[in-house]
Structure prediction request, 224 residues.
Amino acid sequence: REQVSSLKPGKAHFDALVHLLRYLRDNNNYGVRFFSDYSSSPLYQHLNSHGLPTDQLLVSMSDSSWNDDVDTGRSTGCFLIFYMGGVVDHSSNMPDPVALSSAEAEYNQACIATMALMHISMAINNLELLEEDTQRTGIPLILDSSSAIAIGSSFKDTKHTRHIMRRYHFVRSMLEKGFIILLWINTKGQLADIGTKVLGTESYSVLLPICMSRISVEGSVQEG
Prediction:
């Protein structure tokens, strides 16, 4: 992706707009699908193929680029939250802190994903009429940065991490309570990558069908 300043819009920005409009035109037949049999969902099969646990219906993936805004130095982050194989919450954003490393950018985004997970979990608990003090535990939060996982799991500050804003150690708090577990996946399997950068056709065509299902004009779901 060409690095250009957003303060001087030009041809690169026009090309990006055309790219966006083309995407909307070509992908308006995708929708969210939930699976009563979770084991038949593309997400379940994706996690299973990467050796990740599949015993939770609520799953989140979080990812971040690093230092890709040439004006501010901020990083683009994305999280996807799945329930019963379908996306129930997502965000592509630029957190305010300027991360000093790719690991910090990933960790900052993991915090945003964890906060969203708490809200979704409470909403699902209400829908399922669970007791007020009942809380899901061991919800997978899947990252492709082993360094970011180490920051959250170590519960110790080093000279490389002590500058991180205290609120971002919310991840550690939720880990300590058992609310989430941090799991690693290789970058090629990271579904949240779809919201952090412009992907090539090959990667995009692999990741999108796991997140969304193609819907026919009549409204029926098509496989693949």
